[in-house]
Amino acid sequence: MMITVSINGASKRWSIRTGETLLSVLRREGYLSVKCGCGTGDCGACTVLYNGRAVNSCLLLAAKADGAEVRTVEGLAAGDRLHPIQEAFIDEGAVQCGYCTPGAVLSAFDLLSRNPSPTEGEIREALSGNLCRCTGYVKQVRAVQAAAERMRSDGDA
Amino acid sequence: MHHQMESIERPTSLQGAWDRKAEGKEAVRFLGGGIDLQLYSPATVRTLVDLSGLGLAFIQREEGLVLGATTTMTEAIESDEVGEYADGFLREILRQVASPLQRNLATFGGTLGSAHPWSDVIPAFLVLDAELTLFRGSEETVRVEEYYAQREAYAGGLITKVRLPALPGNGRCAFETFTRTAFDVAMLNVACCGAIADGRWEDVRIAVGGTPALATRLRSVETGLVGAEVTETSLGEASAACSEAIEARDDLRATGAYRRTLARQLVHRALLDVAGLKKGDGA
């Protein structure tokens, strides 16, 4: 079957199988920031923004995403300028092996688009579906706090 | 990849969705958020009927609360109506369910229809005396407790909404769950609602889930408590009775004996909370 998806602002028409996940289709189409970890919605490595909300793309059938807006980390930067969340993750050293990072960045994006001044608890809750075995989360939390501050001062939030 | 799935359809009416299900039976599955379909889809499923075009994503306040079947848990958590209902009882439970990523997909219809024994939402709906509306050619309403007691009779029906009645003015609710990790499903969970007048239970409802069977109301204990004086002793006795009354079994998460211990502790905490006597986690 064919589906049409708005991916990172561009309309794409893809041939898929009805029982395929969005994760599978995105990776086949070259969106390799979207990682396959557990395949059961536990790790968050496959996080994408689906109609503006962070979801596990391993749990979402691509057929259901027909007509949806999907955003991956590939679509966050504005040209050569990284998004403030991406910059903050680099500056705060919130990246080690990097496997979970795209998902964590998108969960942070979902949070900050709705709550420009989150508490530490709200940040930890927002990232709770993105398991990280490297950072211990401390630097990720700091990165989201730093990104929130930058976005508020830049007027992005 | 579910190789057996062949097509997806998007009906624009309840009747259209039901006709497709009635025609295809086990080969047709309703698609809400899709989590269960992705994780546990039976090999018989050939056709998906996407419910997203049926206008079932809504939250209404009307002598209680009405939640449309395709409303997501996140939409409920973020709504004022759910936050204000039963002093935030339901919102706090929903915030403990899985992760935000899953809550952005998970729907109430899917939660009710899949009926996982570990569900934190179903015990809450049971003690709230929730009613769900099913469509099987016409709409019918059934109490959630009755729906699970007669599952075969209602199998295949399209859940369209769930109605949560208003609590009485003196009504309070509490929820307790015990998990191996914050992200794991419950080894056991407990929901209680009650109302107290003149120091005695006017109404009390207790549901225990994850035993590891699906949550059920403990009617015999409830009946014994109504009219009883609210004391720590009577609550302790009721908690012990709940521990005996549940259908506790072993599974990979806990032994049946451990679950009975959990039931006694968690019911006690929940009843103390409902009675306004909770002293904290050590209670």
Describe the structure using short key phrases.
heterodimer, A: 157 residues, alpha+beta, Ubiquitin-like (UB roll), DNA polymerase, domain 1, 2 domains, 5 helices, B: 283 residues, Uridine Diphospho-n-acetylenolpyruvylglucosamine Reductase, domain 3, Enolase-like, domain 1, 3 domains
Q: Any idea of the CATH class of the largest domain in chain A?
A: Alpha Beta
Going by CATH, the architecture of the largest domain in chain A would be Roll
Poorly predicted segments of chain A: none
Total E-strand runs of chain A:
5
Helicity level of chain A, as a percent range? 25-40%
| Termini Cα gap of chain A | 38 Å
The first-level CATH class of the largest domain in chain B is given as: Alpha Beta
> What is the name of the CATH topology of the largest domain in chain B?
Uridine Diphospho-n-acetylenolpyruvylglucosamine Reductase, domain 3
Q: How many domains in all of chain B?
A: 3
**Nearest-integer average pLDDT of chain A:** 96
CATH architecture of the largest domain in chain B: 2-Layer Sandwich
What does this structure look like?
The complex is a heterodimer of chains A (157) and B (283). Chain A has helices at 22-28, 84-91, 101-114, 120-126, 138-154; strands at residues 2-7, 10-15, 47-50, 53-56, 69-71. Chain A is of the alpha+beta class. Chain A is globular. The mean pLDDT of chain A is 96. Chain B has 283 residues and is α+β, with helices and mostly antiparallel strands. Chain B has 3 domains: 7-50; 59-165, 2-Layer Sandwich (Uridine Diphospho-n-acetylenolpyruvylglucosamine Reductase, domain 3); 172-274, CO dehydrogenase flavoprotein, C-terminal domain (Enolase-like, domain 1). Chain B is built from 13 helices and 12 strands. A 5-stranded antiparallel sheet of chain B has the order 4-5-8-6-7. In chain B, helix 11 (219-225) packs antiparallel against helix 12 (232-245) and helix 12 (232-245) packs antiparallel against helix 13. Chain B starts with 6 loop residues before the first strand and ends in a 9-residue tail after the last helix. The A-B interface holds A 1, 17-21, 24, 40-42, 44, 47, 50, 53-56, 58-61, 63-64, 66, 107, 110, 125-126, 128-130 and B 1-8, 31, 34-35, 37-39, 41, 48, 50, 52, 74, 95, 98-102, 104-105, 182-183.
